[in-house]
Amino acid sequence: MPDVKRTAEIRDFRRTFVGGSDARIITGTDEARLLRLWREKRGEAEPEDLSSNLIVQLGSATEDLNRRWYEANSGQVVVDVQKRIHHPGLRWMAATLDGRVEASGAVFEAKFMLPWSFSEEAAAELQHNMWVIAARGAVLSIITGGGKWVEIKVHADPLYQHLIVTAERKFWRCVENGETPSLFGVAPPKPRIEAVRIVDMGSSNAWAEFAAVFTRTRDAHLEHERAKAELKSLVPDDAQQAIGYGVRAKRSKSGAISFDLLGGAEGGHAPVQ
Predict the structure, then answer these.
(1) For the whole model, what pTM was predicted?
(2) Whole-number Å distance between alpha carbons of 3 and 21
(3) Does domain 4-177 have CATH number 3.90.320.10?
């Protein structure tokens, strides 16, 4: 049986600060979720019941396994598991960590998710947590629905963190004064993901199509580039234009030379790239 009193205490305590999972909502695009969070923080609504959210429950159920798997595969040790830390200067900001990598101090985050949904699902939360504990990096340890494990290393992004903190500060002001918040429009940047995998694209029809085009046109492209280089070398240094055999070379003010195909005598022409 769940400890009802303990659950209520945790719920009431969470109303007193903005955490990493809140950052995801505050910087997101779902206005209904933002307003619900605002009402929760003001004590006007109960927290959302996530007991029937399968992804959330799978994340909770696999969190210990995820951490052990990361430690076994990386050789690193994770400390400060489920430790709550408040920002030293902002009383309303805190982070409940899945852990911290002992050797580097990086934030450790365990997720059950699809790796390509990283930027939408975890970027704001990770940057928030890094800001709270002044970490320079984070490690996202992902167990996917396909039974794979993926490690993604993320660097602290000062500009994005500034936008997150600004949005959170405005949100918390609304919590305190009762003003209804609006979406803050903080789009996550494209994450800098370390390239660590070799991927077989044999099952991709699109890859097959464009690989065939690439293969078929490669020799022609190389011949085209060689011809452009030779034509450029033939243009006299004092020539603003050079014309012959249906091709026109034009020199720009900066000295760059581009080519046109001439149609007819001087008529319609298309640029040669």
Answers:
(1) 0.66
(2) 23
(3) yes
